[in-house]
Amino acid sequence: MWNYVVRRLLYTPLIVIGVLLVTFLLFVVVQGDLSTEIAGRSASAETIAEIRAEYGWDKPLFINIEGMKQHGIEALFDSQFVKHFVDTVTFDFGRSRASKQRISELLWDGAGPSLCLTLPMFVGLLSTSLSIALIIAFARGTIWDTILVVICVLGMSLPSLAFILLGQYFLAYKLGWFPIFGYEPGWSGAKFLTLPVLIGIIAGLGSDVRFYRTVMLDEIRADYIRTAYAKGVSTRRVLFVHLLKNALIPVITSVVLAIPFLFLGSLLLERFFGIPGLGYMMIEAIGNRDFKVISAMTFIISVLFVFGNLATDICYALVDPRISLH
Amino acid sequence: MNAITATAADIPETPTRGLWADAWRRVFRNRLALFMSLIVLLYVLVALFVAFGWLANDWDQSVGGSYEPPSTTNMLGTDIFGLSVLRKTLYGTKISMTVALVAALISLAIGVPLGAMAGYFRGIVDEIIVWIYSTLSSIPGLLLVMAFAFVLKDKSLFGQPLRGITVVYLALGLTSWVGICRLIRGEVIKHKQRDYVAAARAYGCPRWRIILLHLIPNVSHLILIDFSLRFVGFIHAEVILSFLGLGVKDEPSWGVMIDDARLELSRDVWWQMAAATAAIFVVSLALNIVSDALRDALDPKLRE
Q1: N or C: which end of chain B has fewer CB within 10 A?
Q2: pTM for the whole thing?
Q3: ipTM
Q4: Of residues A18, A160, A286, nearest to B150 (C-beta)
């Protein structure tokens, strides 16, 4: 088992380096020199040169042979790649083009509102879909099973934008049950968050219930369930003790995989309801062509995801003896 | 090994059907899936008709005043510029189908060969491919697609500027091959141990031929299942990308229509929203059911 854990730990830096390379490739190599775009049409050659120096676009991509000839060996690594690498590893992403704020501070400020939205949504969605899936597992093969599956497929087929638009239109605008737009920190913000949380839960139910139903039905055909029934365990006990415990492994995986999305928030929900979280920032950054913000966000969220994955895999190795063999 | 331990009871008495023949029979027996595939076919036909210019090619001609509600002359009403919502919806079908098809083909074209190579050659090739896809799958999907679309926008490829629909299917295709690559790799590792591969190797079949003509046909049912499942995801992704301003522009797509509808709803103009949503809903529903039926029919684990 320790063999597995150590190997898994050693692989993690490789993945982080991979993510770094992807952001470098996208936002430095493919993105290229934007100095003329940033400077505007009537900019002088000096302004453009200044911008190029500020963003490091005047340097070579990987190694600086010209610089080495002029300034000695340490200038060899004065390149865009080394700058990107050092900046990213030290979490120094520079400043946002639009608001001139430090990007690391922006990310820190955005995480709170995003979590306020996604944490209740996530807990609500998980508990609702698990209970419905358990009910389906209990009623499998009956008409109720069919009806619930049909509802799930119908829900999955509706695009998430439609859920948001229709929910906001009918529940907030037409019926006036909730405020249409806005955000306040603290408990007074709860009235603004109720509707987006509700919409998020309903929009996610279709695919989640269907996934957990498959998990439960896979387990319910297992031998240990038949054994439990055969030795006279009550149905309720079989479902809630034997079945749930074993079905939890895929459930935990999907929970951990969802964690980075908690930080990112639900992009579209934040945009529609004016919640100043990371998703909202991301959409604004796209509009402002603020590539540094997008690059920083991609890196941070991916690193969170990598460590979340690492944590689950190690937990599995500790809990499930079968995994240590691989 | 099975051949040695098999007893008379293991050998079926009646000749069994092949995988594909059995799958056909199952899909045909499933009335609902059959009906839904007809709906998918209808969407494809509409897309083809639009592509050939036989249908909705006059979507940019105004047919009436601004925001006319649905009537007998304009069945789905008009938008702010007096354009027919029906024509826009039909034209959006072409955009949607093209994006989903091209994106799915790109992701297969990358994922299948890489997966087969990783599974067949193992060693350093496998290590590198696994590292690449582990990295890509560590970046949350929507974020990755958005980053790709953002960067690719207005760049040029082979002298052609990338914009609109091209960006959408490139971004989707280049980011979504991980799933099929992982699946094919796993299957090829399993199939490599089988006798038919050993036999092909024994008579000196070159490796590319074994992969292309022996291994890939034997995992093609997985490719089809993956393709059909991914299609719906791509349709929904186009809507989100176009909505975020990273996708289609200057052409009506379902995403652009929903983006327009965001402001129209407060004026009680619901028809554009309803038309685009209904178009997406019906095709997604049909595809969901068809892909389920395909999976049931083709997945050996689910075969009786």
Answers
A1: C
A2: 0.82
A3: 0.80
A4: A286
